[in-house]
Amino acid sequence: MFKKAQNIDTAFKQIRNFCIIFISACSLVAGTAIIKSFSFVAAMQDKIYILANGKAIEAFASDRKENVPVEAKEHVKTFHQFFFNLDPDDKVIKENIGRALYLADNSAKREYDNLKESNYFSNLISGNVSQRITIDSVMVNLESHPFHFRCVAKLEITRATSKVLRNLITEGYLRSVNRSENNAHGFLIENWMIIENNDLSIKPR
């Protein structure tokens, strides 16, 4: 009888030890899973995905200082493309120039007003003229703010009877401003000047 009681007591201890080990193992697994889940969620919150052509592309956040050279050049390119890529359509001209003027100060507005007063845009429309700019290079001096830049480009003007290729060089300064929907790079072009705008070639069509 005593031996049976001893066997039951031993079995009970074994079951108790097994339960303690099993519960400890389950707690360890559950705790590890919870910690990993929180780490995964935190890592996912640091990621941004951009939807492009129906595909999600991961974007990586970085300090703006690392991107200043790239963003400054891109701002200059974007401004020149809006200002100089024109078609013989009054609505297209107003939209493009309007978007360009968000990226620059009154120096660009003065240039636009001068072109408008000389009937440049009216002549584009009446003559069915299109023009396209190709940016060759953008040089930005980041040593002092506002940043001085020089843009070298080619301007192709397509008329009904000819194609004109022009050399275009502009200069100005970039001042840092807050980003907005109309100014994604956070720069404003100041004291913009057209240094050269000379014909390189004229080809009949």
- CATH top level label of the largest domain: Alpha Beta
By DSSP (H or I, 4+ residues per run), the number of helices equals 5
The residue-averaged pLDDT reads 83
Rg over CA atoms, rounded to whole Å, is 33 Å
Order of helices and strands: HEEHHHHEEEE
Instruction: Using the alpha-carbon principal axes, give the shape.
Output: elongated
Distance between the termini: 117 Å
CATH arch. level architecture of the largest domain: Roll
Percent helix = 40-55%
Describe the structure.
This protein is α+β, with helices and mostly antiparallel strands and 205 residues long. It has two domains: 2-48; 62-204, Nuclear Transport Factor 2, Chain: A, CATH 3.10.450. Helices cover 47% and strands 33% of the residues. It contains five helices and six strands, in the order H-E-E-H-H-H-H-E-E-E-E. The protein has helices at residues 2-45, 64-84, 90-101, 106-117, 120-126; strands at residues 48-52, 55-59, 130-141, 147-158, 162-176, 187-204. The protein has a four-stranded antiparallel sheet with strand order 3-4-5-6, with helices on one face. A two-stranded antiparallel ribbon has the order 1-2. Strand 1 (48-52) and strand 2 form a beta hairpin. Helix 2 runs antiparallel to helix 3 (90-101). The protein is elongated, with a radius of gyration of 33 Å. It starts with a helix and ends with a strand. The mean pLDDT is 83.
